[in-house]
Amino acid sequence: METQLSSFSHVSEQPALLIPVAEGDGIGPEIMSATLAILKAADPKLDFKKVTVGLKAYESGLMSGIGDDTWDAIKTHNVILKGPITTPQGGGYKSVNVTLRKTLGLYANLRPCVSYHPYVSALQPKMDVVIIRENEEDTYAGIEHRQSAEVYQCLKLITRPGCERIVRYAFEYARAHGRKKVTCMSKDNIMKLTDGLFHKVFDDIALQYPEIENNHMIIDIGTARIASRPTDFDVVVTLNLYGDILSDVAAEVAGSIGLAGSSNIGHDCAMFEAVHGSAPDIAGLDIANPSGLLLSSVMMLVHLGRAKPASHIHNAWLKVLEEGLHTADIYKPGISRKKLGTRAFAEAIIERLGQTPEKIAAVEYPEYEPVSLIHPEVNTAASSTVNKTLMGVDVFLNWDDYGRDPEVLGSNLKTLAGPEFHLALITNRGVKVWPNGNPQTLRTDHWRCRFPLAESHSDSRAISMLLMRLADAGFDAVKTENLYEFDGVRGYSQAQGE
Ligand code: NAD
Question: 301 and 423, same structural domain?
């Protein structure tokens, strides 16, 4: 491959740039070697510093899978190109990806999903969608508890600043890249407070971008429509868990998850990686497709302001695809012309640097300010002046007595409510079982008991006294949630059947 490097005469007008790279595990070293050879050939002023992430770090006793040299390099250079990592099963090892995203505040995860039909076979021949996924919040905060023999919970945390910055990022991205429409996807018909906030912030921020069309879809039909009518979409912005699933669906219908690149963007730094994993089944065989990592590195060059080499690499890659020179994962007799290994595929791209595709539309990345420099407009003044009023408390009990009869529980709790509270209702898995519950409702050992405060006792110490009365009576309160109104608006959901 070395001989090919000197054959491309383009010389970057940009200054020298050092990029930290983590090879990764499994196929990581092969696809990274191929990718770096192409990058170096397109922009000789790039240099790379290998850092320790993944199995090597785990084996040296680092449960995070991330070496100190990696943190130092990211702190200095504000960027990392990362190969796929094998997370060892069990043993308390942490996911490198989640740790890097959260520690570095990489709040935006971008996945462009483009099909290259008829040169690469695709379920959807006309697809060009960018999925922008919130990357830090939601159930990925990883706050989980087991509360009883039968019930486990995972907290879904959605914040206003988190929603504001990802939604604003999506609109700024659309503006910077000449995209015409941003679609928000959420499930706010069910989760009216959390997903409702995401949708509301989207509607508010959309008003500031009148030139960009916007709409909202419920995530389930939205995912179905991405798979069936992708041309209805341009940029999609969504919450963390939905985005995780949606972007895999979108990448797959665009051709192959093996072709998809991604970027993780924060205010100060960014991480670029392929969407696929470490593919241990084909490691060391020189058959892996380096395209996902290569396209991630193209996104990295654009992010770093190296638009010219980014366009050169992308166009050479498109030319290789349209000539039917394919790696085994996308090789199809009748469509492909020749099956290439990882190294030969990279060499074919290097040979075509400076050329543009003839059948697939060429790309030309514009020079622009990286979108990540935008800071979220967090209205802290508004948060401090909001009028928060305690209205009561939900107490969650682990209770497994008297055949789980809600009538028995209700009559006991009514007495224990004392003068400060009254017992308004009891639910089981969110469904009202007292008063007047339906005997068909499945009853687990986990009961949510709602105690609104009597107005004359609006002191939060009353909650502690209620909990003491419950404990003295032998009840196991596993969790409480205070009920508040904010500026007179209810800040808690009603039960099904309430
Ligand atoms: P995978 O993406 O590694 O592999 C799934 C299938 O796709 C395999 O058959 C594999 O051979 C094939 N494949 C993947 N990338 C390919 C490529 N570039 N070229 C050709 N074929 C390719 O998913 P998996 O098998 O579920 O996971 C393997 C390991 O990767 C696990 O340890 C998992 O935790 C890890 N993983 C890491 C990341 C990451 O670091 N970003 C992402 C996903 C999975």
Answer: no
Chain CA centroid to CA 14, Å = 32
pLDDT in tens, 269-295: 999 999 999 999 999 999 999 999 999
Q: Is the model's pTM score more than 0.85?
A: yes
Gap between the Cα atoms of 466 and 471, Å rounded: 9
State how beta strands 128-134 and 261-265 pair. Answer: unpaired
Specify the number of domains making up the chain. 2
Task: Establish how many alpha carbons lie within 13 A of residue 237's alpha carbon, considering only the half-sphere containing its beta carbon.
Answer: 31
Q: Any idea what DSSP says for residue 138?
A: B
Between the two ends of the chain, the Cα-to-Cα distance in Å is 69
Tell me: do 369 and 403 sit in the same domain: no
Query: What is Dmax (Cα atoms) for the chain?
Result: 86
**CA–centroid distance, residue 40 to ligand 1 (Å):** 26
Looking up tokens 């912005």 gives 237
Cα(352)–Cα(38) distance, integer angstroms: 10
**Which residue in 25, 43, 195, 244 is the catalytic one?**
244
Q: What is the pLDDT confidence band of residue 256, given thresholds at 50, 70 and 90?
A: confident
Q: What's the CA-to-centroid distance between 25 and ligand 1, angstroms?
A: 10
Average pLDDT of span 68-81: 94
Judgement on whether residues 393 and 254 belong to the same structural domain of the protein: no
CA of 27 to the centre of ligand 1 (A): 9
Residue 141 CB contacts under 8 Å (≥ 6 apart), including other chains: 155, 157
Express each pLDDT in 475-487 by its tens digit: 999 999 999 999 9
Domain assignment of residue 307, given as a range: 17-373
Query: Of 350, 373, 396, which residue is a domain's last?
Result: 373
Q: Using an 8 Å Cβ cutoff, are 157 and 138 in contact?
A: yes
Whether 479 and 411 have beta carbons less than 8 Å apart is answered as: no
Assess if residue 3 is contained within a domain: no
Pocket of ligand 1, candidates 278, 282, 297: which has the most ligand atoms within 8 Å of its Cβ, to mutate? 278
Contact 39, 297 (CB under 8 A): yes
329 is annotated as an active-site residue = no
- 240 with 190, same domain: the answer is yes
248, 286, 329, 400: the active-site residue: 248
Q: What is the pLDDT, as a whole number, of residue 385?
A: 84
138 has catalytic annotation: no
User: How far does residue 140's CA lie from ligand 1's centre (Å)?
Assistant: 21
187 is catalytic: yes
Return left, alpha or beta for 334; rule: phi > 0 is left, psi -120 to 50 is alpha, else beta: left
For 465, the 3-state DSSP assignment is: helix
195 pairs with which residues across the strands? none
**DSSP, residue by residue, 77-127:** HSEEEE---PPPSSTTPPPHHHHHHHHTT--EEEEEEE--TTTS--SSSS-
> Exposed, middle or buried, 248 (CB in 10 Å: 0-12/13-18/19+)?
middle
